[in-house]
Amino acid sequence: IEDSVCSIVPDDHKLEVDMGDIGAEKLKNNGTTTPKSFQIRLQDCVFDTQETMTTTFTGTVSSANSGNYYTIFNTDTGAAFNNVSLAIGDSLGTSYKSGMGIDQKIVKDTST
Questions:
Q1: Nearest to 96 by CA among 65, 64, 55, 63
Q2: Cα–Cα distance measured from residue 97 to residue 11, given in angstroms and rounded to the nearest whole number
Q3: Name one GO cellular component term (predicted).
Q4: Residues 6+ positions from 80 with CB-CB distance below 8 Å
Q5: How many CB atoms lie within 10 A of CB 48?
Q6: Cβ pair 45, 6 in contact under 8 A
Q7: CA dihedral 65, 69, 70, 72 (to 10 degrees)
Q8: What is the per-residue pLDDT across 72-89, written as a single tens digit (0 to 9) for each?
Q9: End-to-end alpha-carbon separation of the chain, Å?
Q10: pLDDT digit string, tens, across residues 16-56
């Protein structure tokens, strides 16, 4: 039992984002890839007058750079990839560090 304003839609609990095939050459010298969009859907929300909410992502901080981004783990072995990290950001290009709150406007689905 949780005392929560919302719950995450069950299909989004273990959300997988397909990053596609990325060649090692693309990542050399602090290279980056094209951002991938994802959504975490909420259900059973109870809002009164709130217009924004805060989401916080936490995880293992990467030692690959000083940006405090996330370590990427090999799903087959569980070992961390060397010299590669993941940034989580918003549509404006702002990257968020592990543990940093991300304020987002609440978009209510009024469909029935």
A1: 55
A2: 25
A3: pilus
A4: 60, 62, 71, 72, 73, 74
A5: 5
A6: yes
A7: -40
A8: 777 778 777 777 778 888
A9: 26
A10: 888 888 888 887 887 888 888 888 888 888 877 888 888 88
Query: Token pair of 86, please?
Result: 């993941």
Reading the block at residue 40, the tokens are 């975490």
Q: What is the 3-state secondary structure (H, E, C) of the chain?
A: CCCCCCEECHHHCCCCCCCCCCCHHHHCCCCCCCCCCCCCCEECCCCCCCCEEEEECCCCECCCCCCCCEEEECCCCCCEEEEEEECEECCCCCEECCCCEEEEECCCCCCC
Tokens representing 102 are 């991300």
- Joined tokens for residue 79: 């070992």
